[in-house]
Design a protein that fits this description.
The chain is mainly alpha-helical. The chain is about 65% helix and about 5% strand. The chain has a domain of about 130 residues: Rossmann fold (3-Layer(aba) Sandwich).
């Protein structure tokens, strides 16, 4: 049945395409919709995303301890602006992940901050909301080109109002920044092959998976395009951008494909997945994702077999399905299972959007030629959109349940400000939300703090460096003195290195207080009292 559906789509216009190709002419696409309609679609998508940022959620809290990655990407962007561009023009982080997601987003945020002086996380959230809205516009334009205005408007309505897309775009996650250029490259193809290759190349800067998607789309275009000149233009533009990108990564990290390599090694292979076994829920859900790889793979094969004019868009959609299903079903990434709301997280806006477009095409191809049935198709689309709004209840409940975490972070930042006099503050590298609260609300600057990952403990090979304190004392104390650390906050449980350090060197530490239900310990450090002679 699925094959008959797609074959029906292909049949429409095939005779015209054949006639044009026989004359040696290039197939003309229908005229682009008016700019007024394009702006309308953009605003239709943008307004609910802005409403989510400024009304449904706290603009300063995209989801503390849930969407913590948003704070982490902000942290990399802020530190790139304040430190990285002055230290060899590179991204910068407190946790060593400045290259992990890609170099595009940090430099975009650094550029915005440099031009405007703004470093508020609201900028990150609005940026993602804007690119998410652009994604909707581009799907609208692609749909209009191949299937007409009715399907394009229905697809735009679905993308603009789909709850999963709205919420994830509004949090500030960076997926839209990688997806939008890929869709733009698809829209420009095949009329502007050089521009398509450049923009497709730029998409590789944003995330490791968009690098994979971009390479896949590029290879498909090279294989399926018949025009030699277009293939050459695409080849030189895409490969040229990638060579510059890879040269930068090679010079800075020693690995030309650093984001792809480490995302694969850390997530897929499981080097960063420390759980020894899968939980019961992970065991139950893994076969579901594994099964979903089958229709995804069949969709990819069908697209290569039939070679429709819209093959880049279908390959992106089916490829994304396969990627998400494969990551959870075929790799160790299932150990990072995001709880019962995994289906509403950043992985699924595009899979849902693409599924919605397929369903809309089906509805309008089956019923769109009869006015009464066309109305039925519109009713079905609206009913689906309304059904997606039910997702708001569990998502906002989860968001509200983490409100206390954001309050706790602000409390820690306030205590640090009250006790800060000079020097630097040692903070947990796993809490970028704390970095943000310190900078945004307490007036700290990048030079005023340093992450625990910079401490010698992180690089010592001993299972417990404090058990061999005589061997490591000078390294640790020299580091404290050299970095002028005068205040530190750390978890009572999970950071025993620092508790043991204080036990061994009580003279240079002064206990201040416990904060956040006694989960964190706050100490003053007296580096001036450190004596290293004779060691």
């Amino acid at each position: 049945m699925l094959e008959k559906f797609f074959n029906r789509i292909l049949e429409e216009g095939r005779e015209i395409e054949k006639e044009v190709e026989e004359r040696g002419e290039e197939i003309e696409f229908p005229p682009r919709p008016s700019w007024l309609l394009i702006v309308f679609v953009f605003l239709l998508a943008l307004l609910p995303r802005l409403y989510t940022i400024f009304v449904l959620t706290d603009p300063q809290n995209p989801g503390c301890n849930w969407y913590e990655d948003v704070y982490h990407r902000w942290q990399v962007g802020y530190l790139t602006w304040k430190i990285g561009i002055h230290e060899g023009f590179r991204p910068w982080d407190l946790k060593g992940m400045e290259y992990f997601w890609g170099i595009g987003h940090p430099f975009i945020l650094a550029l915005i901050s440099a031009l405007t002086g703004l470093y508020d996380i609201v900028v990150s959230r609005v940026l993602s909301a804007g690119f998410g809205s652009l994604v909707v516009v581009l799907v609208f334009l692609i749909s209009h080109r191949f299937w007409g205005i009715k399907i394009a408007l229905a697809a735009a309505l679905f993308g603009a109002l789909n709850q999963v897309g709205i919420f994830n775009d509004a949090t500030g996650m960076i997926e839209p920044l990688g997806l939008a250029p890929i869709l733009l490259a698809i829209y420009l193809w095949p009329k502007r092959p050089f521009g398509s290759g450049v923009i497709l190349g730029l998409a590789t800067f944003v995330r490791a998976e968009t690098w994979v998607f971009a390479v896949g789309i590029f290879l498909a275009m090279m294989i399926l395009e018949k025009d030699f000149d277009k293939r050459i233009a695409l080849l030189f533009s895409f490969v040229g951008i990638n060579l510059l990108h890879m040269k930068f990564l090679l010079d800075k990290t020693g690995n030309a494909i650093y984001p792809v390599y480490w995302n694969f090694a850390a997530n897929a292979v499981g080097e960063w997945m420390y759980a020894p076994t899968l939980t019961q829920i992970q065991e139950q859900i893994k076969p579901v994702f594994t099964a979903l790889t089958i229709p995804s793979a069949l969709g990819i094969l069908w697209t290569f077999w039939k070679r429709p004019k819209y093959y880049p868009f279908f390959l992106l959609g089916f490829g994304n399905w396969f990627f998400v299903a494969g990551m959870f079903g075929l790799t160790m990434y299932i150990k990072a299972y995001y709880g019962h709301l995994v289906w509403a997280t950043r992985f699924f806006p595009l899979p849902y959007f693409f599924a919605g477009v397929l369903l809309i095409i089906l509805l309008f191809k089956l019923f769109g030629k009869i006015r009464f049935l066309t109305i039925s198709a519109w009713i079905a689309v609206c009913a689906i959109i309304l059904a997606t709004q039910l997702v708001w209840t569990p998502v906002l409940a989860k968001y509200e349940s983490r409100a206390r975490d954001w309050e706790a972070v602000q409390e820690i930042a306030q205590r640090l400000r009250e006790n800060y006099e000079e020097g630097r503050v040692l903070i947990p590298e796993t809490m970028p939300s704390l970095t943000y609260a310190m900078v945004r609300f307490q007036g700290f600057e990048a030079k005023d703090f340093i992450g625990e990952m910079y401490a010698p403990f992180f690089y010592m090979e001993d299972e417990d460096p404090l058990d061999n304190w005589r061997d490591h004392r000078e390294d640790v104390l020299s580091w404290l003195k050299r970095e002028d650390i005068r205040l530190m906050v750390f978890l009572r449980v999970g950071k025993e290195d620092y508790s043991k350090l204080i036990e061994r060197e009580p003279g240079i530490f002064e206990f201040i207080e416990t904060v956040v239900d006694k989960r964190f310990l706050l100490y003053k450090v007296k580096p001036d009292l450190i004596e290293l002679e004779g060691l």
